[in-house]
């Protein structure tokens, strides 16, 4: 487990939860994995020799894949209050493939130095940027960074599937959380990997 959760003290509750889940895995009749066989064929074949395993991914709403279920447009829940119009209206006014979308998930905490370097990068980039930053992380912005700059939009939440599916988005800077990776792969968005913890380093190697 130490190779999976590299820094125990950072997220002890997550460590305990994952430990309990893996401790019970031998009791399961089936292990359903949100992945695609063609993407991880070697691993699936190996793990299927240990557990009865089935791939059921990508578990993404139908309207972003085969469009067979017209009402299946989102995951049906969110831990954040949606504000779809702000992001989408902003993207609607940007040229095709001109926006860098940046999101590091709902748990990752970047260091102040990392935040400063990212702010410097976006400010000096030739592209627009849409950056999802939790309110608790905004205090790490350097004084010289203006979140309201016309070049970028900083929000605390956005509808990620809609954003990745938008034609103005040309790149996704991601923490390489598995769900985010599957979404970007399914929608054909190029990724820049910036993994933070757990499986994200391994995921980054895949892309």
TrEMBL record:
Q: What family does the entry list?
A: Belongs to the UDP-glycosyltransferase family.
- Keyword Cell membrane (UniProt): no
Q: Which InterPro entries does the UniProt entry name for this protein?
A: UDP_glucos_trans, UDP_glycos_trans_CS
PROSITE patterns per the record?
UDPGT
Root EC class: transferase
E.C. no = 2.4.1.115
One Pfam family cited in the UniProt record for this chain? UDPGT
Signal peptide start and end residues? none
Q: What is the lineage of its organism?
A: Eukaryota, Viridiplantae, Streptophyta, Embryophyta, Tracheophyta
Which GO molecular function, any one, fits this protein according to its record? Answer: quercetin 3-O-glucosyltransferase activity
Describe the reaction catalysed, as an equation: an anthocyanidin + UDP-alpha-D-glucose + H(+) = an anthocyanidin 3-O-beta-D-glucoside + UDP
The keyword Oxidoreductase is annotated on this UniProt entry: no
Q: Please give the pathway this protein is involved in.
A: Pigment biosynthesis; anthocyanin biosynthesis
What is the protein's given name? anthocyanidin 3-O-glucosyltransferase
**Alphabetically ordered keywords of this record:** Glycosyltransferase, Transferase
């Amino acid at each position: 487990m130490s190779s999976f959760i590299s820094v125990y003290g950072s997220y002890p509750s997550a460590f305990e939860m994952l430990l309990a889940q893996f401790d019970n895995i031998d009791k399961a009749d089936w292990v359903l994995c949100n992945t695609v066989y063609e993407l991880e064929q070697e691993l699936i074949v190996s793990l299927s020799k240990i557990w009865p395993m089935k791939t059921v991914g990508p578990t993404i709403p139908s309207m972003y894949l085969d469009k067979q279920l017209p009402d299946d447009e989102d995951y049906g829940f969110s831990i954040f209050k949606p504000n779809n119009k702000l992001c989408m209206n902003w993207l609607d006014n940007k040229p095709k493939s001109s926006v860098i979308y940046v999101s590091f998930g709902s748990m990752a905490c970047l260091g102040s130095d990392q935040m400063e370097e990212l702010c410097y990068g976006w400010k000096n980039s030739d592209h627009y940027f849409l950056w999802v930053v939790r309110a608790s992380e905004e205090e790490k912005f350097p004084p010289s960074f203006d979140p309201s700059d016309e070049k970028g939009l900083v929000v605390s939440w956005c509808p990620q599937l809609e954003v990745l599916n938008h034609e103005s988005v040309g790149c996704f800077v991601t923490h390489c959380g598995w769900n985010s990776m599957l979404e970007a792969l399914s929608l054909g968005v190029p990724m820049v990997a910036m993994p933070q913890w757990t499986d994200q380093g391994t995921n980054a190697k895949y892309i």
